[in-house]
Amino acid sequence: MALTGMQIYKLLPKTNCKDCGLPTCMAFAMQVAAKQKALTDCPHVSEESKSELSEASSPPMRLVKIGTGDATFEIGQETVMFRHDEKFHRPCGIAVRVKAKLSDDDAMKVVEKINGSVFDRVGQTLKVELCALEVDGVGDPASRAKKAADKSKVPIVIVGKDPAKIKAAAEAIKDKRPLLYGADASNIDALIEIASSCKCPLAVSAGSLEELADLTSKAKEKGVDDLVLSFDTKDMVKTLRSLTLARRAALRKNFRPLGYPALVEVLEGDAIDETVIASAFAAKYAGIVIIDNAEPWELLPIMVVIQNVYTDPQVPNTVDAKLYEIGSVTENSPVLFTTNFSLTYFSVEAEVERSKIPTFICVVETEGLGVLNAYAGDKISAEKVVKTIQEQKVAEKVKHRKLIIPGLLPIFRAEIEDTSEWKEVIIGPETAREIPGFLTSNWK
Fold it and tell me: What is the mean pLDDT of each run of 10 residues along the chain (444 residues)?
């Protein structure tokens, strides 16, 4: 039975110390009741209270940490079925497979490629989060695992079915806290023992959700609490259904044996198909997707899906409303303005950089709306633009009085010229991609 915030509050210290990251104990209690915080997040709760409330108040999906220190990846502790209900908290991580058939040198080249798979998009860093190291068929799995762990900048997933191989690899890098992936009914006892002795999280798979629940219950009984539900993609429809049912059982029914994050191994030879399938599972409840390829053209579509799905739908993506200097600007550099919607700003910034013409970008506060939406919603006006330019002291930066405005707002031209010192207002392009050609042709 779910506990109310008041029931939880009565068993808290009631000191409002803020050590949990929230302003009051009542606020913390409400978060615990909503399954958004664990009781253990309060460092001062008594052992008696923990005993009474821990199981009932813990989030329905366990938080699982892979790796250590700066190289830590977290999955789980999600609270909603649908993004619009609140938000998804921990983005799905891409794991690139390092195949067992590779030589040590070739395997390390793949690890280096994983390290280098880092991209910047609209102000956020996107990267491959995990290195999936196959050990079945490797002559010396301990040596391979040690070399990979030493070189990798991301946590390791040890992939295999042979308990002896997995044990050798896990013991070699147990201080890195890898995820052990490959437990099923045939090897569950051995892998539980390895996970327990090495204190590593364990990924468990089975032919059905009922069998999967039995295996996770068995692992928990033997002391392995950090578990991941794993699925292959041989039958995509079945897997999507299983992911949805497992999440619903955990979040809606509080069914603890399935209250763990999910891993999906994409087994598809064609790289394009692999990208599409991985993107689908990343959007539909997978905490980790394992793929074969690390080419940017394949990784970026998956990463963009993850970035979009795990963006908080209730909070606009914005940048600070201030004056940005792109390149080595001078007093003769062009000046343009745009809104503080992240995608709009970074699109403009990227195209200005591509033009090779140092430029001032004046960003106007529009509550995270793009140009047309801001205009339609009365969040931007010629008066507001003039005021923003004055507050940012743009006139002190340049000796000219030419202002480039978005091509979608030509109506602002006359009012800006009439009410400000910017007497030459130039109507710019309607889309960001036209900026390089426009600046090259119109700015001397």
Answer: 75 89 90 77 81 67 94 93 88 96 95 95 90 95 96 96 96 96 95 96 95 95 95 89 95 91 90 94 96 94 94 83 95 95 92 95 94 93 96 95 94 94 94 94 84
Please give the pLDDT value at position 210. Answer: 95
Residue 146 tokens, joined: 């040690």
Taken as a whole, the chain contains a residue count of 444
Report residue 236 as tokens.
Answer: 């995509």
Greatest Cα pair distance, the chain, in angstroms, is: 80
| DSSP-assigned letters across all residues of 324-369 | EEESS--TT--EEEEESBHHHHHHHHHHHHHHT--EEEEEEP-TT-
State pTM to two decimals: 0.77
- How is residue 213 annotated by DSSP? H
b/e for 61-97, b at 16 or more Cβ within 10 A?
bbbbebbeeebebbbbbbbeeebeeebbbbbbbbbbb
> Can you tell me which residue has the tokens 């390390």?
108
Instruction: Kindly tell me the burial class for residue 105, based on how many C-beta atoms sit within 10 Å of its own C-beta (0-12, 13-18, 19 or more).
Output: exposed
For the chain, domains (ranges, CATH) are: 5-57 (1.10.15.40), 63-309 (3.20.20.20), 323-442 (3.40.50.11600)
- Return the pLDDT at 327: 94
DSSP state of 217: H
Neighbours of 284 (CB within 10 A): 16
- HEC secondary structure over 139-203: CCHHHHHHHHHHHCCCCEEEECCCHHHHHHHHHHCHHHCCEEEEECCCCHHHHHHHHHHHCCCEE
List Cβ neighbours of 408 (8 Å cut-off, separation of 6 or more). Answer: 371, 372, 375, 430
Report the alpha-carbon distance of residue 349 to residue 360 in Å, rounded.
Answer: 10
Non-local CB neighbours of 26 within 8 Å, separated by 6+ positions: 5, 9
d(CA 67, CA 71): 6
Query: In sequence order, what are the beta bridge partners of 215?
Result: none
Q: What is the C-alpha separation between 379 and 219, in angstroms, rounded? A: 55
Q: Which helix (H) or strand (E) holds 364?
A: strand 359-364
Q: Which residues contact 138 (CB under 8 A, 6 or more apart)?
A: 100, 144, 165
How far is 384 from 328, CA to CA, in rounded Å? 27
Six-digit token string for 265: 């191994």
